[in-house]
Amino acid sequence: AQAMPSFEHAIVKWQADARLSAAQTTLIGLSQGAIMSLELTQVADLAGRVIAIAGRFAQAPRRSPTGVAFRFIHGADDPVIDPKFSLDAAHRLRALGGDATAQIVPSLAHGIDERAASLVLDALAA
To answer: Which of the residues are catalytic?
Structure first.
C-alpha cells in the first residue's frame, strides 16, 4: 500500500514520456512486480494488459477494469506463491466480466523458464 502511489506515479510518467495511452501499456511483473501490477488495476486504469508471472493479487480482485486483459503464468511447483492464486484470480476476474486467463507451467518453481518466456511472448503478440 505504501509503494503504490510511487508505482502509479512512475507508470504515469513513463506513459507521458513515451506518449502512450493506458490501452497501449502492458505491465509485466514477476512475483512482487506482478503483485504491484495487478493491484494497480484495482486503483487506477493505467494498462490495457497485465502479464503476471508467479504473482497474485494482494487481496481478491474487487473489479475487472474494462479493456484490461489479464494473463497469469505460474509454475505448477511454485513453493513461494501457490499457483492456485493465479487460477482463482483469473476465475474471479472472468466472473466480474473481465478478460483473464491462467496458464500453469508443469514442473516450474518460482521463476521463468523457456516455456514461461514463450507464454509471455504469446501474450504480448495477442
So the answer is: 31, 78, 110
